[in-house]
Amino acid sequence: DHQVFDLLEFTYEHVALPTSTGLHPYFQHHHYRYDRDAGRQQFAGDVNRLFERNGIAYQLHDGQVERLVPTVLQEVMQQAVFNTGDQTLNDLLQMAREKFLNRELAVRREALEKLWDAWERLKSLSDPNDKKRSVERLLDRASAEPTLRGRIELEARQLTDIGNNFMIRHTEVTKPPVTESIHVDYLFHRLFSFIRMLLQANGVRM
Predict the structure, then answer these.
(1) CA atoms within 13 A on the CB side of 114
(2) How far apart are CA 166 and CA 178, in angstroms?
């Protein structure tokens, strides 16, 4: 698959659409000009139709074969704008998104690391000198209803435990790796949705 994807990306880089500019009257042959943008557009359309017809969850976009994320994540991932007020957090979220869209499973696993790093960064923003108090402020703004507030705190703790107990943020031999694509999707979706909710509850538009 990856060799085919490399070939598609190479072809996209060099393809152009030929258009006749007129017939040479003496030698009876056409002169052509080559429109790179039109050629790329047509080529990408043809490739993506083949992907769709054969149920292949990839698309050729701007010269790169990208993995189509699960439908429940696709709109959120494409539309999210990271403007949190903290450039490091913005960069971590952007790197996580880019890696998650990569066609290589190994790179998508790296997306989990970046996303969990973003989670740890977010937890410390409100009060850098007291992380516990910083987290409490973050979660308090998420909900004033006590029962829901408790569930949100439980989810925050569980997500932190996942990052610490699997080979996401740490690489000790005792940490089990996340190796299946469906599990990467699930964990990424779970934390990304949670971070998105917290940021929106704290006044960040995404």
Answers:
(1) 18
(2) 7
With vertex at residue 56, the alpha carbon angle to CA 79 and CA 63, rounded to the nearest 5 degrees, is 60
Give the angle subtended at the CA of 85 by the CAs of 111 and 167, to the nearest 5°. 20
CB–CB of 178/100 below 8 Å?
A: no
- Residues 43 and 64 sit within 8 Å (Cβ to Cβ): no
Continuous segment of H or E residues that includes residue 134? helix 131-140
**Within 13 Å, how many C-alpha atoms sit on residue 107's CB side?**
11
Q: How far is CA 44 from the centre of its chain?
A: 20
pLDDT for 70-128, tens place per residue?
666 666 676 677 889 999 999 999 999 989 888 788 999 999 999 999 999 999 998 99
Query: What's the CA gap between 113 and 67, in Å, rounded?
Result: 19
- pTM (global) more than 0.85: no
Residue 26, Ramachandran bin (φ over 0: left; ψ between -120 and 50: alpha; else beta) = alpha
The Cα angle at residue 122 between residues 117 and 123, in degrees rounded to 5? 100
Lookup: tokens for 198: 């917290």
Amino acid at 196: R
- Rounded Cα gap, residues 189 and 80, in angstroms: 13
